[in-house]
Amino acid sequence: MVRILELGSDGDDVKFLQDRLNEALPSALSPLLVDGDFGPVTLGRVNEYQGDHRLAVNGVVGPVTWTNVLGHTVAETPGFFVLGRQFYDYEGTRVLLRGVNKMSVFEQQEDQVGQISFPEIKKTGANTVRIVWRKAVNDPPESTDPEVLKGLIHQAKTNRLIPMIELHDATGDWSKLDELVDYWEQKSKMLTQHDQYLLLNIGNEVGDWDVTRSQFVEGYTSAVQRLRAVGIKTPLVIDAAGWGQDLNLLNQSAADLLAADPEGNLVFSVHIYWSEKDEPGSVPTRIQRAVDLGYPLIIGEFSAYGAYAGEGVSICSEAGKVDYRAVLEACHQHEIGWYAWEWGPGNGYQNEKGEGDPKCVVMDMTPDRKFADIKPGWAHEVAVSSPYGIQKTAVTPSWMT
After folding, report:
1. Please, which residues bridge with residue 269 across strands?
2. Where are the beta strands (DSSP E) in 241-375?
3. Contact of 321 with 305, CB cutoff 8 Å
4. E strand or H helix at 113, and its extent?
5. For 232-263, what is each residue's pLDDT tens digit?
6. Which of 67, 100, 89 lies closest to 13, judged by CA?
7. Tell me, what DSSP letter sits at residue 384?
8. Alpha helix stretches (DSSP H) within 294-323
9. Could you tell me if 112 and 372 are in contact, meaning their C-beta atoms sit under 8 angstroms apart?
10. CA 364 to CA 303: how far, in whole Å?
């Protein structure tokens, strides 16, 4: 759960508590100075709050008091946790996720455990990497090696990158959600060894635009509770359906899913491939709606391209452009974490059957995994030159070594 706070505690989570106590007026006491210091004045307000809400008046903000403050159950966890819309480390310091995606599962020959890419990604200043993984690859399918996944997690930690791991096997396919949960259950022993560092993205873009709210809530309630039952306490990241893009569905479902998690430790992720051509100016408005609901949201994927542009039209043509600058600015304004798609190379791959889109090489941020060769244009902006980009805004927790 969130940290237990008491007299003498300090940190960003104390600021969050002080904010919430100020919102809990009317009070017989003066509003708190939001300074992150749990001193005698904050202690007095905590005691008042506990008394007003018929809780044990002991001045300690533990599971029962936090549950009352947050409106959903929380439990102990050794690593990252969420409070309101924000994300915190085990020391109570707020962490703003700034990173990139890496299609590691397809790098089994040249960069198996990120030994090339991850040190280069770190040169951007990123504090996290979203690791694309699968249960199986190739045709016919061959099972992936969990030892390689373990190596990727280790390499991310070595390079002071928070690893977010995800499964790519059910993209757009709601019927496969349970199969993803089966896989993570089987790997629970490995996952719990990395509780302090890890984020677990249950599945990439599970479900198309036909997934209903009731299906989404029911399916992910089961998924979350199954994963908690095998001891996985790390934050669980839930992608939107609609190929990751249905933010409205997250808006409608987040509160119910948070209430269903015995850990109260969920993050919701939308992939912004919304058409700049068809929906000009929509990015800040749509993000604002989610922010107003107050749930923890990140942008799990975005790029300068990738919007659906019509049958037979490349998503990586001019017609598939995305307003990535609006994404950067809105996320900076609202302090929302994000991951750019994708470090590269590999987006322009086309197999022998003609599957794939060579034009999508424009989504590779680098042609050769090297930071020195990062591409001009959107990739350089996102990683280096934008005032809202990685290099200007990312902060790595000081305890990560």
Report:
1. 239, 298
2. 266-272, 297-302, 337-340
3. yes
4. none
5. 999 999 999 999 999 999 999 999 999 999 99
6. 89
7. I
8. none
9. no
10. 10
